[in-house]
């Protein structure tokens, strides 16, 4: 039993340490962009694979629901991985790298935002979605770990969690989503 307690304590410590590495200036910059996006009636598109797809889905629900409760107007947010039939049709008919890109090409508009969530920072379909967003004059916020990866080199705002373990990186990403949600809920205009 002691081994289990020690493993649990070690994981909690590692996850807490990872969360504490997040650059608060980058967080503030991202929140300002998200608030401006809501204020201007633009849309936030969120992408991620695996656990990051679940975080993308969670972000969309939180951004939509929480900000609409207080402000009467949601932060328009779409989790692209939630469009399962479309994602799989594109992956089947084209390739997996295009699974998110085509939807960005179809719907993205200038000054919309792409929130790209990827632990490694190097997922080909996420990088392709970022390229599509940039070509549409959208802004890009990336959440990554593992040193940031390629997404941190091309995003407008790159938030990197300093950890090389998936669990703590994904924990920190969820903490960031909850922080964004709280601020979207509590701040009415652009800051």
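-> sequence recovered:
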């Amino acid at each position: 039993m002691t081994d289990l307690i020690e493993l649990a304590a070690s994981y909690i410590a590692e996850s807490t340490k990872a969360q504490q590495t997040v650059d608060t200036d980058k967080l503030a910059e991202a929140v300002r962009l998200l608030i401006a996006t809501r204020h201007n009636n633009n849309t936030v598109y969120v992408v991620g694979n695996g656990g990051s797809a679940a975080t993308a889905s969670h972000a969309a629900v939180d951004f939509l629901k929480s900000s609409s409760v207080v402000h009467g107007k949601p932060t328009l947010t779409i989790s692209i991985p939630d469009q399962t039939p479309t994602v799989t049709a594109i992956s089947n008919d084209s390739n997996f790298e295009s699974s998110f890109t085509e939807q960005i090409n179809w719907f993205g508009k200038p000054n919309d935002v792409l929130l790209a969530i990827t632990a490694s920072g190097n997922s080909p379909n996420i990088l392709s979605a970022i390229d599509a967003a940039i070509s549409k004059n959208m802004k890009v916020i990336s959440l990554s770990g593992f040193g940031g990866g390629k997404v941190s080199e091309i995003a407008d705002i790159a938030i990197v969690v300093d950890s090389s373990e998936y669990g703590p990186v994904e924990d920190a990403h969820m903490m960031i989503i909850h922080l964004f949600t709280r601020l979207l809920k509590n701040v009415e205009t652009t800051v």
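The mean pLDDT is 94.
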